Amino acid sequence: MSISILVEYTPLILILGGIAATSWLLAILIKATPIFGNPMSKILKVVSIFGFFVGVLLLLTGAAVWSTEIWDVGTKYLLIITGLALFLKPLRQIPWAALVGFIIGGACFMLIYFYFPLPESILNISSVWIYLIIFFAPALVTYLFFKFIEDLLKLIGLVLASKPVATILGIICISHGILLLFNQSLFSLL
Fold first, then answer.
1. Coil, strand or helix: which one is 121?
2. How far apart are the C-alpha atoms of 44 and 27, rounded to whole Å?
3. End-to-end CA distance of the chain
4. How do residues 2-12 score in pLDDT, each as one tens digit?
5. d(Cα 53, Cα 33) in Å, to the nearest integer?
6. 48, exposed or middle or buried, with CB in 10 Å at 0-12, 13-18, 19+?
7. What is the pTM of this model?
8. What is the DSSP letter of 190?
9. Rounded to whole angstroms, what are the CA distances from 134 to 125, 164, 180?
10. Is the pLDDT of residue 55 over 60?
11. How do the domains of the chain map onto residue ranges?
12. Contact 174, 14 (CB under 8 A)
């Protein structure tokens, strides 16, 4: 399946992304209504949980729109920025630098241990210490490199996933998606 099929559904995907971005605000507003409050509140919580996957869908749609040149530039940027906001929100909680550093260090250790085994001692240094150095050296270098990238992505995610920015992005996505259904663009009206 090609991702270019997503281009046809760009307005609906934008509306879904807007609902996911503003789900916290919509849940507060809908909870006050007596008839729709309880069922809609549960639906919005589910949409909020699946915000990560909606972010991936927005990013894929943004890539497809970018390659086909069908929608305007504002739509492309809106898809990508909102997709990043929804995608990075849960990912900033995971310590990626430590995880990647551990994997790289472990891979180097396993490679040396299984394919190039060391003798019991080298220059009166136990092979255990050599193996520890083989694990920690690439792990620490990888950790330092990825820690910078992780902090940068946390900063971007913190700004984009903040409630005021997410609300503004969500409202723009919903209104732009509705206008795209009528072959109009919010950015051409501005």
1. strand
2. 6
3. 36
4. 777 888 888 89
5. 28
6. buried
7. 0.71
8. -
9. 14, 46, 56
10. yes
11. 1-92+161-190, 93-155
12. yes
